[in-house]
Amino acid sequence: MRLYSFPYISEKPTISMKISRLLSLLLMGFFFACRPATQEKSDLPTLKTYFDHTNKEDVLTGGVRMIPIETPKGTFKVWTKRVGNNPRMKLLLLHGGPGANHAYFEAFDSFLPQEGIEYYYYDQLGSALSEKPKDSTLWTIEHFVEEVEQVRQALDLDKDNFYILGHSWGGILGIEYALKYQENLKGLIISNMMSSIPAYVDYAQNVLGPQFGKEVYDELMALENAKEYDNPRYLELIYEHHYPQHVIRFPLDAWPEPVSRGFEGLNADLYVYMQGVSEFGVTEGATLADWDRSEELGKITVPTLTIGAEFDTMDPKHMEEMAEKLPKGSYLNCPQGSHFAMYDDQQAYFKGVIQFIKEVNGVE
């Protein structure tokens, strides 16, 4: 912002000069008063207010709440945990899987608190610290959309402060939630998830797979076609060629602890039912196999950020095209990242996420 200054006057000011200066100051005051209001940095929480639990019902649990979710099969509780306190910016994190858990989001602790963003860890029904009813009729997109809406209501999130970040399967859930309930959203972040499962499978089989080399890829596909997903050789090929290149770009023995914990806590029954048994795409017959919302992205009118990564299991070009289809879409590319770009390209990932939220919120 450019500020105007007055020239130094050496002689004693006259009455007319004093009046002229006064009028100038009044005009400047009028100009700044008429500028569009934005949330200045002074409006952000202080360290004290950000960690203030006053009048919070989760003070005894350090931010943890078990939220009852009503379903046709009864009421079940899901686990959430609040970090921070900012009435203007509240981010709900939707984990992947389906059937994974919040653990791998713990890297957010290193970036969001100092930016004043309040955020919520959340284990979806059937995952980790939430209840796990063994009823596959609850394992539907429709159920999880309604579950997110009930969580939103319980946490008192609304269109003036409510952001969603959905990663992988959480990105599907975020898209579906926005298509039904976007009037409750302020902003949406679709992280490392394409808008079409068939397009994702095609990318895996025709782009990523051949990069392994013909011999490796042919063997991998032979095992998949024979449905030998438990064959030690199949897992060996996946762990050697797929995971460290496209899932998270760390050696297997050097995975960040929250990522390992997230994989260890996976609800395998839920995962297989919706995603399938393949580690290289979505298995035919799984409930997500035909999911595709590419032609409906134009209906999502809230500000939306799509995040892609150069080495992702998802096609980064597809995710850039998603941003172009979204009326208020923008795209973040993580040039060093893979599917877990919040770990292997942290600086690009979090800089983009924080910038998006603050820009939507009008923070300078």
Alpha carbon gap, first and last residue: 12 Å
**Structural class, please?**
alpha/beta
Number of discrete helical segments: 12
| H and E order | HHEEEEHEHEHHHHHEHEHH
What is the residue-mean pLDDT, rounded to a whole number?
89
General shape: globular
> Strand arrangement, largest sheet?
1-2-4-3-5-6-7-8
Radius of gyration of CA atoms, rounded to a whole number: 25 Å
Q: How many runs of DSSP E, i.e. beta strands?
A: 8
Helical amount: 25-40%
Characterize the main sheet: 8 strands, mixed
Q: How large a portion of the residues is in β-strands, by DSSP E?
A: 5-15%
Low-pLDDT segments: 1-39
Question: How do the strands and helices of this protein lay out in sequence?
Answer:
Blueprint lengths: L14 H19 L13 H4 L13 E8 L2 E10 L6 E5 L23 E6 L17 H15 L6 E6 L1 H13 L5 E5 L5 H12 L5 H12 L6 H16 L9 H8 L3 H7 L29 E6 L6 H10 L3 E6 L6 H4 L1 H16 L3
Parallel strand pairs: 3-4, 3-5, 5-6, 6-7, 7-8
Antiparallel strand pairs: 1-2, 2-4
Helix pairs in contact: 3-4
Keywords for this entry:
8-stranded mixed sheet; 37% helix; single chain; disordered N terminus; alpha/beta; 364 residues
Could you characterize the architecture of this molecule?
The chain has 364 residues and is an alpha/beta fold. Helices cover 37% and strands 14% of the residues. An eight-stranded mixed beta sheet has the order 1-2-4-3-5-6-7-8, with helices on both faces. α3 crosses α4. The protein is globular. The chain starts with 14 loop residues before the first helix and ends with a helix. The model is unreliable at 1-39 (pLDDT under 50).
